Amino acid sequence: MGRVAGWCVMALVAAACVGGGVSDVTDPTAATSSTTSSSTSTTVATTTTTTAPTSTTVAETTTTTVATTTTTTAPTTTTTTAPTTTTTVVRSTTTTALPVVCAPLSPVPASAMEVTTVPVNVDGDNLADLMTVYRVEETWGLRIDVGVGGGVVEAILDVFALDPVAAIGGFDIEGDGSDELFVKVGSGAYATLIQLFDFKDCTITPITLDTIDDANDGVTAIFGVGASIGTVSALTCDGTQLWTLDANLSDDGTFYEVMEVPYTLSGSVLTQGFGDGAIVSADESLGPLFSCGDLTLP
Ligand SMILES: [Ca+2]
Ligand SMILES: [Ca+2]
After folding, report:
1. Dihedral through CA 34, CA 37, CA 43, CA 49, nearest 10?
2. Alpha carbon distances (Å) from 77 to 71, 125, 167
3. Nearest ligand, CA 176
4. Measured in Å, how far apart are the chain's first and last C-alpha atoms?
5. 3-state DSSP call for residue 213?
6. pTM for this structure?
7. From the CA of 98, how far away is ligand 1's center (Å)?
């Protein structure tokens, strides 16, 4: 109403200016016409104002919806993945650390001779266990003293050798967290014989073979390691498998015919795999004769 009044005033002034010296009769008529025009202008202005806010509201609604969708997706994906992985790792570690306690056993006999003792980790609990090899008269003994609770286990080797039998040490052949036992059970002119044993549930078991041709299935796993003129036999551990290498020098002495064979350990059985043959120059090194961690031959 204030604006309408203003228009009226302006109209009156304009009429006064335009009219100039018009008579009193003409003035009321001009004022009435101006009032009608101003009412029409007011209506148009109101319509324009109403339209603008409506457009703005639509735009804001659209923007808000997009933002909400993005926020919901991101946290859900991240949170679900992370905790699942972490939980699995923790449980595995806990299971491996369970201690193994075996029945007590009397000490190594006082009459034992040629005693060798080395630290091993037969049960995966990382508490030092001991492997001892000794001889009483003509029998060689192999025993494990488990670190937890002083429990001990004893087994008797079924091998008798004129050369001293001796403990070599423990190495985890297949990577399950527990050492297998390496024992020197004899030696020839150029080779050292290594027998392998498995320790599980307070029992020492000789490891046996499962060969491709089935000819030596069930045979005790004893490997010869050494080198003579023209022949090399090596044993290697790679953390998951055991490998034998046998090399023979050619007649002209220029190259070796080399055969490497993998063995996969499961429980107390070594399963033979298919070998790889190669020709190697006699000038090249065939690698170490025995390589299973830090173990060295006695
Ligand atoms: Ca232990
Ligand atoms: Ca093992």
Report:
1. -80
2. 11, 37, 54
3. 2
4. 115
5. coil
6. 0.66
7. 10
